[in-house]
From TrEMBL:
This is YqzM-like protein. The chain crosses the membrane at residues 20-43. It comes from Jeotgalicoccus aerolatus. Keywords: Membrane, Transmembrane, Transmembrane helix. InterPro entries: YqzM.
């Protein structure tokens, strides 16, 4: 066992972190898509 495995900084579950990153990325891309659609509807 190396020294990094002995001294773990974060004991969080990686699945939770990956899921949170997916949700945050999905929401960000959704917002980037929705904002121009709102402007297109208002302008049209």
């Amino acid at each position: 066992m190396n020294k990094f495995e002995k001294n773990v900084q974060s004991k969080n579950n990686d699945v939770i972190d990956a899921g949170l990153a997916f949700v945050v990325g999905f929401v960000a891309l959704t917002v980037i898509y929705i904002i121009p659609q709102v402007f297109a509807i208002i302008a049209g």
